[in-house]
Amino acid sequence: MKEVDLADTTQDVLHVEGGKPLNGTIKVRGAKNFVSKAMVAALLAPGVSVLKNVPEIRDVHVVSDLLRLHGATVDWNDDKGTLKIDATNVRLADVADVDTLSGSSRIPILFSGPLLHRLGEAFIPQLGGCNIGGRPIDFHLETLRKLGANVDKEHQDGIHITAPNGLHGAKIHLPYPSVGATEQTLLAAVQAEGRTELSGAATEPEIMDLVAVLQKMGAVISVDVDRTFRIEGVKTLKGFTHTALTDRIEAASWASAALATHGDIFVKGAMQPEMMTFLNVYRKIGGEFDVTDEGIRFWHPGGDLKPVAIETDVHPGFMTDWQQPLVVALTQAKGLSIVHETVYENRFGFTKPLVKMGATIQLYRECLGSLPCRFQQRNYKHSAVIFGPTPLEGRDIDVPDLRGGFSHLIAALAASGPSNVQGISLIDRGYADFRGKLAALGADFD
Ligand code: EPZ
Fold it and tell me: Whose CA is closest to atom 8 on ligand 1?
């Protein structure tokens, strides 16, 4: 396996010889979209927090650097996947330093609550993250305002937020169950004076694991069946020790790779409860899986795959992040499949290169699902019709974003002939050691 320096983006092309099934065992560690938030939560307490089962991905490096810029110490033990964060001393980071990191992540906005509690002010740079839609932060800012913060957007290089007299509890309703805005509210309200009620919230397993972390730290948070969180502000919090839940997006990505390449992959660490919706769809398509105590084995049983109609949604719906890798497998199903994307308005850009590789995929502005979504009549091509099976042929591809990029990689592995996948370092943001895993699965690449 080639050693990869995650800070180095020059190792950016992967030459893939496709057409070989991926067979073997890989291990998936903690969820990217939980670990980064738990790292931010550590900033709330003046003490040591320990996070286990952490994947070595670029987003973890970025958040580690952001924590260090704010005065925390972060020690990383890769063999154990353990992060030790000491947030005893917290200071405001230099604006220019934070700015150099901001292009690569959306996490800085979540620093607001912890920094307001510890220092009375926070600076949020222009945000990065995957280019899959407008990705506004209006819900975040509205939440912070309701909790009593002053939000100053007049700065050229970011947003200055202050709360000299601390935050106070409030009644907040989210117009859409945003994952980030739910986390924002939890991280900010946990030490606000009084009670906060957050309705219309998201309840993804990664959010519930964040609630578990906050409870270990001393928080009082409950959730009702109608997606309403109630947070009783507490004065002090202490450090935590926690093992991250498995990355269900990565697990589903490898499951889709098994299907697309006619392979057989045992994903150690994959958990059934968080993946139930995905597993139902996998079975309907004709994929086989076997759940064990150590993980889930996914395989293509031979014969034709069946088409499906799916709609992405917030939990417990079909995750938007599962959609792209699965679309590659759907190009090999016999008949018409439909994917209605209801979370992001612009998440089908990745299908263009798939069409160049031989797939038949058409995009529509209409809602091709059981219910109209909020993108109805808004001119976004957010429904896809995939007709299969179509053989895929290798091509030169530019990776557009994290999940789209992984789906291109799967397509290159499933295709006949060579492909050059350019911009591969984007995949390091969320797939730990994917080159090592590809090698373990017998992929032909360099
Ligand atoms: C998180 O993004 C994840 N990122 C995404 O993972 C994931 O796709 C998404 O949740 C949905 O599950 C991280 O956890 C770091 P949202 P987040 O706020 O929190 C709109 C991946 O590949 N919205 O739930 O940024 C927004 O535009 C990714 O790992 C507003 O309108 O997502 C979107 O349409 C990418 N205003 C919808 O809500 C706001 O202030 C859902 O976004 C905030 C969001």
Answer: 321
